Each structure stands twice: as structure tokens, then as C-alpha cells.
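Thought: the user asked what Acyclic terpene utilisation N-terminal domain-containing protein looks like in 3D. I have the sequence; next I should run the structure tool and report back without guessing.
Action: structure_tool
Action Input:
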Amino acid sequence: MLEAPIKIIVPCGSLGAGVDEEEVRRGLALGAHAIATDAGSTDSGAAYLALGMSKNNRASVKRDLAILMKAGAEAKIPVIVGTSGQAGGDMNLDWTRDIALEIAGELGLKPKIALLYSELDKPTLKARNAAGAVKPLEPLGPLDEATIDACDHIVAVLGAEPYIAALEAGADIILGGRTTDTAVLSSFALMKGAPWGPAWHAAKIAECGSQCAVYRTRGAGVLISIDAEGFEVEPLSLDNRCDPKSVSAHMLYENSNPFLLTEPGGVLDVTDSRYVALDERRVRVTGSVWRKKPYTLKLEGAGAGGYQTIMLVGIQDPEVLGRLDEFHDKMLAALDRRVKTTIGEAAGDFHISLRLYGWNAVSGDRPPEGTPAPREVGVLFVATAATQDMATQIAKACNAWFFHFPIVENEELPSYGFAFTPADIERGAVYEFKLNHVVEIDDPMALVRTTWIDLKQKEAA
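Observation:
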């Protein structure tokens, strides 16, 4: 039973998004016992795992991490980071490690750093798959070795246990590979003996920092206080506040069921949770339950899937704008014929798409009958082929037709507003997530590799 609440600063939604130093100082003044944040997700697509790179620039990550490392050292509390370098692969984690070591050198810090690697090699995954330990999630079917081989990098999405082990071993800083956001934020409280229901629920609410507050852009972070019966949450900015609606609504974020959240080793059940405003800024939550389940880790694998070349035009022709669906269909058919008659079978299994920005580019759905014509549209041409050269050859074959396709036959050819010259822009490889599976394990530590860097020992040596 906890004797006092465990207080954790969640300084931002993701490392590199912008930590507020004043907010961190306020969290320390309120008695924070740890600082925890994730540093990435799958939100920005498969390229960051496949390429082992971050979507954030190095300077922004260094700035945020320097603030947190300095605060942690001064307060003698741990700094916990998960899904390092955006995707949490080994290369992403090593990139973040190098930044942390650079900061330590510049600030004269000597932390004990735990690195939690969660990337899997292909033989390991194939062996577990052959043993029947890998199960598909909808809509995919059983995993085959060809799919594993098609991945450039594969990670297991860790739970809280590797972080708990690192904290128990005395880590001042933890840099984790791919991990659920909630596992990163709940780990310290769990290590200190907090009940699992409130710890996981608090972590879910705080995972995006101030996004659980009423004014989501006023400030960056929140403070969660976890006790034996529940938890409290408050924004670290004095210009912001939480209320029961803003807090409870965050259970809907990236979650298909607002009452159940599946995590490694269990399910958080908030069906009977109560959200009560303590004052104008703080909310208390009780009634959260953790239901243990067989331990599984989600697998994420990414690899290349063809190459793309794009072109862009803007159209203000009222005749075209009044018949956009017809224009799209006619042009797409014409471009497809153009490739087949000029390049032929050498084009391979190519694909062309036209995306009408200002009309239906995001959804791809046909607008309802009678939808007014827009003032203008941007038309994005995307050619996908097996090689970059072929994608570009397809774009070149379509160039004149794309820039001058008439909605009315036998009239003078139009000339649409092209944004760039040369018009064709090589976009490079298309990266795809190729796995949607989980792996069953008996030991939560089975697929994590922990490496230590103790700068105090290095100095003594």
C-alpha cells in the first residue's frame, strides 16, 4: 500500500515537440518523483522505422532532452524516455543515446543510463513464428517468412517491466526502444508499488501531455499523482486547467473502445471510473481496474514497397471545376492508356493515382450530388512502380497529358498551372508497415536487450 502519492512529470506529448522549462520547474516544486515521456509513435508512417531515423530535427530533441536531463540531475530523479528516435528501432535508439551523451558532456553530468533495445532479428522472429507464438491481428492472416524477409526493421512494442527492472537497477536515465506510451509513463509508479489500474489509467490520460487539458495549446505538460485509490492530473501551465470532460475524453484517443485499453500483459478497464473536479485545475479519477491477460507484445515491421514520382498542377478552369469527378475518371483512364501504349509491359505492375486537393483528396469519396464547385483545386499525380527510374519514366510519359488534358474533346488544349519545372519530382521509396501481429511470451523481459552506460564508472576508470 502506497503511503504517499507518486508524482510524475509528463513534460510534453513527445520528446522534441517542445518542453517548457518553467513547467518542468513547477513540477519539481510540486514534488515530482520522476520525469517520463515517449519520443515517437507510428503516427508519421513506416519510413522512420524502415530508415532508422527521426522525423524531428536533432536540435529540437537535444533541446528538450537537455532540459529534462538537467532537471532530473538537479532533483535526483530519473528521466524515462520511450520509443526513442521516433520509431524505437536500434538505429533510432542509438541516435538518441548519442544526443544524451553529448548533453551529459556539455552539462558535466555523470548519469547511469539504461538502453532498452526492442528490435528483433529475423531468425528470432522466424523461430517464434514456427513455434506458433506469433498471432495475426485483423485484417491480416498468419505470418509467413517472406513477409518477415521483406521488413527492413522489426520491433516488439515493450511493456512496463523492462523499465521497472532498469529503475530497480538504479538507472538515472532510461532510453527505451519501441514501447507503448502508457508503459513508459506508468513504470515508475508501478515500480514504487502503485496499483496497476490507477497507474495505467493515469499514464493513458497523460500520454500526450496537455492534450488532456481543456486548452490543449496552453502549455505542454501535466503532472500525474498516483495513489492507492486512484490518481490526480493537472496541467503544469498555470494558464490551463483540466476538467472531467477533458480528462475522460482522452480514453478515446487512438483507442477504439473508450472503456478498455489493451496493453502488454493485461487490459485497463475504466468502465466504472469516476472523474471528479477537485478544483478549477485538477481532476481526480477513481475506479480504474487492471485485468491481467496472457502476455503479448505487438510487432511492427517496416520495409520498402516500390518507388514513386509525383507531379502537381493547380486548376481554376470553371469547366473542369464543375465536372471534377468526370475529369478525374477521364484523365486517369487516359494516363493509364498512355503508359500501356508507350512503355508497355516494361512498366510492370505500376499504379497511377490522381488526388484532387480542394475536392476529395483526403477521403477519396465522391462528394454528394449538388456539392458546389470549388474555386480551385490542386491535382497531385502519383506514379508508383518497381523502380525509381520506371516511376519517373511513367511520369514523363504522362507529362503532356497531365498538364493539358481537356475536359471537352476537340477544343483548344488547356494549360494548367504547374508548380515546378522540371515537373516530375522523384519521391523515393514507398515505405509500408508489413506486420500486424502479436508475439506471445512467458517472460516480459524475453525480447528486450538492456545495455548500460555508467558515466560515473567511466570517469573513475
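Thought: the tool returned a structure. Summarizing for the user.
Final Answer: Structure for Acyclic terpene utilisation N-terminal domain-containing protein predicted. Residues 6-118+157-295+441-460 form one domain. The longest strand covers residues 296-315.
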